[in-house]
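Annex B. Sample input.
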Amino acid sequence: MSEIEPYKRRDWDSNFLGYEVYSTNEAVRTATEICEILTDLKSKARLVYVSHSEPLDIKQTMGSFNGILADIKLTYAKKINPPSSISPDIKSYTASTASDRLIQLGLASGIYSRFRTDPKIGIDKYEAIYREWIVKSVSRIIASEVLVYELGGELTGMVTLGEKNNCADIGLIAVAENYRSHGIGRALMQAAENWGYLQGYTNIQVVTQRANIPACRLYEKNGYELIKEEYFYHFWL
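Annex B, continued. Sample output.
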């Protein structure tokens, strides 16, 4: 085992979900190590996250400890180009509170997340997580900017922006279902890149799920390259 602590409590997750949540560090990867940790955590944790940059050979462990492959998380990035013109329908969201429409777009952005796909977490918790995410983005607590695409007074798309690892970072991005395939996603991506350039960043990144094929295609069409892949397992003890 690594000298680094093999697992830690996830404080935010534990407080928000209402039960004890832990995660292992990436040095933990063998079935034996994971079994030892899960056995040790049985009296402490309800949910344990195990993640690694490669798929783990832990099928038997998953069966013994109620485990699932909850997510394959992909990180895309690209070098920021000089600003180009963007749609006049895109503007900064400056209201002090998130509208119901904006919250619905925020929820739509997370339908492929592991908090949505793991049935044991539940729809209510998933919605609460993403509702808080968009509310705190609007208040600029966890985002530096929120851009929206508005047509005829209706919000049809949105993107939240911030910084991570010295890169411009797209947090949430979504387009209303009945407005997809109309170029709104591409326009929001360009606006995000312009924002990153004006903030002085060299690169911009975004995280999505492998299962979210439309999002992956959007990023790849806009010049993003896959730079990181992570496999997330959930174990319910």
